[in-house]
Specification:
Its main location: cytoplasm. By secondary structure, the chain is mainly α. The protein has four helices and two strands. A hairpin with a 5-residue loop joins strand 1 and strand 2. Helix 1 packs antiparallel against helix 2 (39-58), helix 1 (11-35) runs parallel beside helix 3 (69-97) and helix 2 packs antiparallel against helix 3. The radius of gyration is 31 Å and the shape is elongated. The termini are far apart.
């Protein structure tokens, strides 16, 4: 194809490296502007990145004479460029069809299948976990719990509990009844 540059690296490897470098520069610019909501500018960066990706991929690196660490590195770069090309094309397609906002709106309308729990804060006392097999408990003014008589057998209380030397530790998640002070 071309002559070898002065540093001894084949021109094809140099083309692959240059395309790789420029492609990811534009793809990253596209991602950043996409996240900022500047969709038209992002599309332009993505298209430029795709051009460089295609150029880098088009160089043949599988010839029998293409051996050595430099060629192996070039083949790895080309593989990464192929994967990136698929992702960028998909994102560009979404932007060009205007699906980004409609997908976001659709996702907001999907009913939540799982309850959302507030983040655990160790400093606050979280509610005691209730077991489906244990009877309902009612906390009295003095902090004791009483069991309503529903005919169910109370859950065993002989589970291992955290030592009293660490009162801030919460009981294990599988404990059907919380220890006093937790």
């Amino acid at each position: 194809m071309e002559q070898e540059p002065q540093n001894g690296e084949p021109a094809e490897i140099k083309i692959i490296k240059e395309a790789y470098k420029k492609a990811f520069l534009f793809v990253n610019k596209g991602l950043n502007t996409d996240e900022l909501g500047q969709k038209e500018e992002a599309k332009n960066y993505y298209k430029q990145g795709i051009g460089h990706l295609l150029r880098g991929i088009s160089v043949s690196s599988t010839e029998p004479e293409h051996i050595g660490a430099g060629w192996e590195s070039a083949r790895q770069m080309q593989q990464k460029m192929k994967e990136t090309l698929q992702n960028v094309r998909t994102r560009l397609e979404i932007l060009e069809k205007g699906l980004a906002t409609s997908l976001r709106n659709d996702l907001q309308e999907v009913p939540k299948l799982y309850p959302e729990f507030p983040p655990k804060d160790v400093s606050e006392k979280s509610p005691e976990p209730q077991s489906f097999s244990s009877p309902p408990q009612h906390t009295e003014a003095n902090g004791n719990t009483s069991t309503a008589s529903t005919g169910l057998v109370p859950a065993p209380t002989s589970l291992s509990l955290p030592s009293q030397s660490h009162p801030a530790e919460a009981p294990p998640a599988y404990t059907p009844q919380a220890a006093e002070g937790h």
